[in-house]
Design a protein that fits this description.
single chain, 457 residues, alpha+beta, Triger factor/SurA peptide-binding fold, Chitinase A, domain 3, 3 domains, four-stranded antiparallel sheet, 13 strands, 47% helix
């Protein structure tokens, strides 16, 4: 018995919702509808696209078995979408754009460059994103609906113990070597002169729009440093409160129709925004961002500051955890005493393969460290391409072993909660199938699904 039942519908949903989606063209395949769930359809090309994505990243299990499981996942997604529409669940264009950007960055990192990416697919990044947009929106809606079904669930220590005790001892999962890593990040301080320069640039653009009548969209496309909106002339559609940082929302929601805001500041830099449309708590806007740039001297200052922090830690005047909580500029790890979270599973432990995927240079450094060791400050590049100084701490390194409650409590807790989620979602599916029209093409009626989709037909 493993911690994750790979082919169970709820976990397969989580797998697909969390990974990039392909849009491979199926040459020689005549597309057709292979399943209907309520008023939504699943086509053969959609199934084959999912299959190619899975086959490229996983072992070559029986292709027909995989196709059956993927078809069940797609039908489950359609069922979630139907309910999401009934519950008025909303995904904003900004959320879709953010997810598209995340996936495109992943694709490009796999190919090595944007040029290789475009050569392989025969289309530009923007064309690829345009093709993928509606699919991503459906995925995010289904994801939000699935999260809603289980959002209030938790597991007690006794439930975790009970889950663990049910696993036969000879079937306990084998846990590879894992590490826990702490970090302290120091970003280059931005000088007042640099901030003023950025603010003045935005003000000059605002003057060109307000006083000279120049087109906001054209200037946004030419000068805005927000990659999520610049390619669309700075446009964000149907934004709800909570989608952006408070300063941005305060400025945007206070505007009259077609009014351009004064220059304002957020943690990202300096902005102007124009209100295009407002319907209740939803707005559409155009936006220009100019971010202050750090100079080489600013980077040197960051290194000097972090070197002082390192010295204090090494003198035992302050613990690494406390120093990270007080001084690190990385918001996520700072809140956890410097511990880095594994983006693959949300836990604080990394297997070597996970670490290499997260940050190859980090993997190389950690491999040579001993538990408790702290590195001297060094320059690294963040995922958004900015240079920062970083101190690393190898908090722990575990030897390969069979899973146990003492060393692997987080994993077992997550698995127990997943099982509880699984039961709840399976119950929800069976309940909602009773009133939903289902049709499956004869080619796939021989599939062994986890749920009897045709029970009520």
């Amino acid at each position: 018995m493993n911690f994750v039942k790979r082919y169970n519908v709820i976990f397969f949903a989580a797998l697909l919702l969390g990974t990039p989606l392909t849009t491979f063209a199926q040459s020689g395949v005549i597309d057709k509808v292979i399943a209907v769930v309520g008023n939504s359809i699943v086509t053969k090309s959609q199934l084959e696209s999912q299959y190619l994505q899975y086959a490229s990243a996983s072992d070559k299990t029986d292709p027909q078995l995989i196709r059956c499981k993927l078809l069940e996942q797609l039908m489950f997604q359609r069922l979630l979408l139907t309910q999401a529409q009934k519950d008025s669940i909303v995904v904003t264009d900004a959320q879709v754009e953010q997810e598209l950007d995340r996936r495109i960055r992943y694709f490009i990192s796999q190919f090595g460059s944007e040029q290789k990416f475009t050569e392989f697919y025969g289309k530009s990044v923007e064309e690829f994103k345009s093709d993928l947009g509606s699919d991503i929106k459906d995925l995010l809606l289904a994801q939000k609906m699935q999260a809603k079904l289980t959002e209030d669930m938790a597991v007690t220590p006794s439930e975790i113990r009970s889950y663990y005790d049910k696993i036969p001892k000879d079937s306990l999962p084998f846990i590879n070597e894992e590490v826990e890593i702490g970090q302290i990040i120091k970003k280059p301080p931005v000088s007042p002169e640099t901030k003023k320069e950025a603010k003045d640039r935005v003000q000059a653009l605002r003057d060109r729009i307000v006083n000279k009548g120049e087109d906001f969209a054209v200037l946004a496309a030419l000068y805005s440093e927000d990659p999520g909106s610049a390619v669309r002339g700075g446009r964000y559609d149907t934004l709800r409160r909570g989608a952006f940082v408070p300063e941005f929302e305060a400025a945007a929601f206070s505007l009259k129709l077609n009014e351009v805001s004064p220059v304002f500041e957020t943690s990202y830099g300096y902005h102007i925004v124009e209100l295009l449309d407002k319907r209740g708590e939803e707005i559409s806007v155009r936006h220009i961002l100019i971010a202050p740039k750090s100079s080489p001297n600013d980077l040197v200052k960051a290194g000097t500051i972090l070197d002082s922090i390192y010295t204090v830690i090494m003198r035992d005047s302050i613990s690494f955890r406390e120093a990270a909580s007080r001084f690190s500029d990385d918001e996520e790890s700072r809140q956890n005493g410097g511990l880095v979270t594994n983006p693959i599973n949300g836990l604080t432990k990394f297997e070597k393969a996970d670490l290499g995927q997260f940050d190859p240079t980090l993997a190389f450094t950690i491999d040579r460290m001993k538990p408790g060791e702290i590195t001297k400050p060094s320059i690294t590049t963040t995922r958004d391409g900015k240079q920062v100084y970083r101190i690393l701490n190898l908090k722990s390194r575990s030897e390969p072993h069979a899973a146990n409650l003492k060393d692997d409590y987080q994993k077992i807790q997550t698995a127990a909660l997943n099982e509880k989620h699984q039961k709840a979602v399976t119950s929800w599916i069976r309940k909602h199938l009773a009133g939903t029209y289902i049709r499956i093409d004869d080619e796939y009626k021989g599939c062994k699904f986890d749920i009897n989709w045709l029970a009520n037909q």
